[in-house]
Design goal:
By secondary structure, the chain is an alpha/beta fold. Among the domains are: about 90 residues, 2-Layer Sandwich (Gyrase A, domain 2), CATH 3.30.1360; about 270 residues, HUPs (Rossmann fold, 3-Layer(aba) Sandwich). Helix content is about 50%, strand content about 10%. A four-stranded parallel β-sheet has the order 5-4-12-13, sandwiched between helices. Strands 1-3-2 form a three-stranded antiparallel β-sheet. The two termini are about 30 Å apart. The relative contact order is 0.10. About 5% of the residues have low confidence. It binds one RNA strand through helix 2, helix 13, helix 14, helix 20 and helix 23.
Length: about 675
RNA sequence: GCGCCUGUAGCUCAGUUGGAUAGAGCGCUGGUCUCCGGAACCAGAGGUCGGAGGUUCAAAUCCUCUCAGGCGCGCCA
């Protein structure tokens, strides 16, 4: 709601200035430092003063005197050297927020018109050769939250999880199974059916790394195996398929634990078999985007020049796309994949149902032939976000440069590398995990996770620990609650703690992981935010018990007869009461709380623009904190003045609803009790 | 060597397009509770925003230089 009003004010000011002074200036808006100074401010007069060569304060006074009334704005003030400060109509704001609660949550308004532009978000992308670790969790949490933000804003979103099932990482585990464990494809099939097959592979993968280190000659095995897998030949290919398929199912299960889902799993093997690359290669050659290097160190390779000036045949500024032995590099495949996402390949995968979620929705996987009917039209996006850690920004740049070289500038402009920093371990945590830290690294602030070495905190292990810790607390507080309820609550708390922890840092902050912080349920954490909601619910539960009414009474007068009576009522808090309780200065505290609750749209918008889910996390915490303070200061149920009591209850309802909505954007559920 | 990122309180981090007195959590010290459940609330101490110049009415934010740390730069992915 705050966003709506802020925009309205900016628009009105811009309009007024254009008409009155015949000037087109951008109108910035901000929050005054104190609530006594109003709710929306604009320093526009400073800019105006420069252009008109007049005193800013004088201009501000002139504007305040002349501007037409704006809906929702009660009055103006001039402050400081020439700030325009708007004071909102507090009662009207309350009603507006309340009304927005019932208007379909402001979501999915843009109906899925045929041909409406679609946004693809690609995230998770874990190599299917081992268990997921905390770094992967950050990727998924960021991607999933961003998807929620987009959908809330009415975008049509397709979630892709790319499966690199023919890469070296899978090959390594295949080598482990074949040469270290001496397993046949049938043995592997049995193994893969075990519940924690991904954990088994985690250890095996680390052993294979050692296996190479003991004798470098063994690395030739890797090249052979990789080739066999790519071409789909022999036991290696068979095992590779069993492994990657089983591990992907493990990953989906892990991600489902934290509420992360996908629409489609494009698999690298299908990109190869369907010869996506051939088409991309042809286009790249036709348009001169890549050249065959005839001499120099890259002789025999197809390379893409990256510098602007073409004459610079500087080898340093080119990227090899096709090796001299004719095989495609990773970037090459990625260009083809990115082209497919935009529907630029003129070719599509076949699709089969890979798995069904409990609610009936389906994850599809690509396949090379046949396929099943009923698959939605995947790909052909208008905009693409790739959630990939920042270490790969160079490669992402190459992919975008590839699109441009092909003449797809528009698509390149609409390709976003949604980058984020890695999750590392604090040295203490690494030691705790049983790893020896090289002397030189002891004083470093963090130690990088390495799947290759088996160094990392596995996602399911962390989730298990979170759940058992939460469970212990729940058992303490609700010894009499039925077992399934307690399990459900503990799960919600665990996920709340984990997702909040992963989302509260901005994207380019390296998270130095430590169990102490990640397992905390106090302070700036998910459970703190959830607890605020539970407190609000308790008030209504108690209230219902006392009044023996199921809900807080009555549909509110201002909301129309059809609104669900979940709480808001202005039945006994009319405009005069609003003024009395929310008015300045006595009502400033309550008003500030209401204002904050009504600012979710503003923060969600900022989060979307900056592609920064952390903004929503910060907002949720702020609101929870403000509510806890309010809860402590006002004892609602024992309030004597019935009108005031109604207002406090209404306020509580609004805050609760907004907080639940904010948490939902973060993928965090607010339990009934905890 | 080149490119990108980071440097804000003891620690971990916020600070959207430059805006009014730089914030939070943790930790520390001291308080609050005959309760709508302490996963809580309040108060206090604690900051030359790495450093130096510059642009501007206005700089933690923009520019230049500089110091420190990280990441990337492969016929790996």
């Amino acid at each position: 709601m705050y966003l709506t009003i802020e925009k309205r004010i900016q628009h009105a000011l811009a309009e007024h200035i254009r008409r009155r002074y015949e000037l087109d200036v951008p109108v910035p808006a901000s929050r005054p430092p104190k609530i006594e100074m109003g709710e929306v401010a604009s320093p526009v007069c400073f800019e105006l003063a420069k252009r008109l060569k007049r005193a800013p304060r004088q201009l501000a006074q002139e504007i305040v005197a002349e501007i037409a009334p704006i809906e929702g704005v009660a009055r103006w003030e001039v402050a400081g050297g020439g700030y325009l400060n708007a004071f909102l109509d507090r009662g009207a704001f309350f009603d507006a927020v309340a009304r927005s609660m019932f208007s379909g949550a402001g979501a999915a308004q843009k109906s899925a018109a045929p041909g409406a532009p679609k946004t693809i978000v690609e995230h998770t992308n874990i190599n299917p050769n081992k268990a997921a670790h905390i770094g992967h969790l950050r990727n998924a949490a960021l991607g999933d939250t961003f998807v929620r933000l987009l959908r809330q804003a009415g975008e049509i979103v397709e979630v892709q999880n790319y499966i690199d099932n023919t890469g070296v990482q899978v090959a390594d585990v295949v080598i482990g199974l074949l040469h270290l464990e001496k397993k046949s494809p049938d043995d592997v099939r049995q193994l893969a059916a075990e519940p924690r097959f991904d954990f088994y592979c985690w250890d095996l993968y680390a052993r294979v790394t050692q296996f190479y280190e003991e004798d470098k000659a063994r690395e030739s095995l890797r090249a052979e195996t990789l080739k066999a897998i790519e071409e789909g030949r022999g036991a290696a290919a068979k095992i590779g398929e069993i492994v990657s398929d089983a591990i992907v199912r493990c990953h989906l299960r892990t991600m489902e634990r934290l509420g992360v889902r996908y629409d489609v799993l494009p698999r690298e093997s299908d990109i190869l078999h369907l010869k996506f690359w051939d088409i991309a290669f042809q286009q790249l050659k036709d348009r001169g985007a890549i050249q065959l290097a005839s001499a120099g160190k890259n002789a025999g390779c197809w390379v893409m020049p990256l510098s602007e000036d073409r004459d610079a045949t500087a080898e340093d500024d080119t990227k090899i796309i096709v090796r001299s032995n004719g095989t495609v590099t990773y970037v090459g495949k990625d260009i083809a994949y990115q082209m497919w996402k935009f529907g630029l390949l003129g070719k599509d995968f076949h699709y089969r149902k890979f798995q069904q979620y409990p609610d009936g929705s389906i994850v599809w996987a690509s396949c090379s032939d046949g396929g099943e009917v009923g698959a939605p039209p995947f790909g052909r996006a208008a905009r693409v976000y790739n959630v990939i850690d920042s270490r790969q920004s160079y490669l992402q740049k190459v992919v975008m440069a590839g699109l441009r070289a092909l003449g797809y500038n528009e698509q390149a402009d609409r390709s976003v590398h949604f980058s984020y920093e890695m999750v590392a371990l604090t040295p203490r945590c690494a030691v705790e995990m049983g790893y020896e830290i090289p002397l030189g690294d002891a004083r470093k602030p963090y130690v990088e996770v390495s799947g290759r070495k088996g160094l990392g905190v596995k996602a399911d292990d962390l989730l298990d620990r979170l759940e058992s810790n939460a469970r212990a607390e729940v058992d303490k507080r609700h010894p009499d609650a039925p077992e399934p309820d307690r399990a459900q609550i503990a799960h919600a708390i665990a996920i709340g703690a984990l997702r909040y922890f992963l989302l509260k840092y901005t994207r380019n902050t390296i998270i130095a992981f430590d169990f102490k912080d990640a397992l905390s349920f106090e302070g700036e954490t998910g459970p703190y935010c959830q607890y605020a909601v539970v407190r609000a619910r308790n008030i209504f539960r108690k209230y219902a018990e006392a009044t023996r009414e199921k809900h807080f009474p009555g549909p509110p007068r201002t909301l129309g007869p059809n609104d669900p009576a979940i709480g808001v009522s202005s039945a006994s808090a009319g405009p005069e009461d609003m003024k009395r309780f929310l008015g300045s200065p006595e009502g400033n505290d309550l008003w500030e709380l209401l204002l904050l609750a009504g600012s979710l749209d503003w923060h969600a918008d900022a989060a979307l623009n900056a592609q920064e889910p952390a903004f929503v996390a910060k907002f949720a915490f702020q609101l929870a904190q403000a509510f806890n303070n309010f809860y402590h200061k006002h004892h609602i149920l024992s309030e004597e003045d019935p009108a005031r009591k109604t207002l406090l209850l209404n306020l509580t309802t609004l805050i609760m609803a907004q907080l639940v909505r904010a948490l939902d954007l973060l993928g965090i559920e607010a339990p009934e009790r905890m």
